[in-house]
Task: structure prediction
Amino acid sequence: MSAKQLEQAAQAERTAFVFPGQGSQKVGMLAEMADQFSEVRETFAEASDAVGFDLWNIAQTGEGLNQTENTQPVLLTASIALWRVWLSLGGVAPKFLAGHSLGEYSALVAGKALTLTDAVKLVNLRGQLMQHAVPQGAGAMAAILGLADENVLELCQQASLTGEGSVEAANFNTKGQIVIAGTTNLVEQVMATVKAQSGKAIALPVSVPSHCSLMKSAAEKFAEALEQTAIELPIVPVIQNVNAKAAQSVAELRQALTEQLYKSVQWTSTIQLLQDQGIDYIVECGPGNVLSNMAKRLPNIEKTFALDNKSRMEDALNAILVAEGKIA
Result:
């Protein structure tokens, strides 16, 4: 899909597209869509050629799917496949793009800041560097629910001061839901304290403690790859994870992508910005509906959509075209 084709798509004023990160993968993802839309297999073939292994086979068999260096290119490719189907069916170009963690790369491909070929190579490397940054079992992540953000941050700070290592807020997902990441024993310490305070703490089945200072060594190496990759400012604004802003220069964009490895995902602030900019409809472009379900609970969002099967895709197409005044 060329930049010109994206520019020619009907422009939305009230719609944003969001792209999911790790955790949304599932075995057999997009199988139904691939039978009905040629863009799906074509996109996977293009991405597979770039990284040198069969991403579609991993997606369908599940073999190696949960290894970070595989998960990231597979998910990015699945999201871009759905994006291409959306445009091919006459879907609108959104007013804003955003992606949760890995999903930020999908947003940048959709916005023509990165080619799919370069992006899958980057996220494959990103996954490898993240996997190797911390010894297996040395890092962990957990979702914390039911406590104020300030309380969770204080618990992390206290644990980091008293123990060896660190634990930090990794994702600010919604009000009352923070994901923490860091040294395993300190994550477990915070979880125990949260439960003692009548909050909820759920250990996440991940092999890498993302978005915390344990990833700084990975970020230093990844910055070199970013410098060698052709990047442009996106033609649709992409709200970045680390600061909930759209980059004003390519240098800013590269810096934010580097920092994203070891700084918190500011998803709550990202969605608030979208609402402040008049966004009423959020479309999740990727396998599953994690982000659209989170947005459903927001008072100023009229409706959310997922695109991961044909009926959902068609419902979203019609609803958005009507809501944006493109069809009666």
About this structure: Strands lie at 15-19, 96-99, 139-145, 167-174, 177-183, 200-203, 238-239, 265-266, 281-284, 303-306.
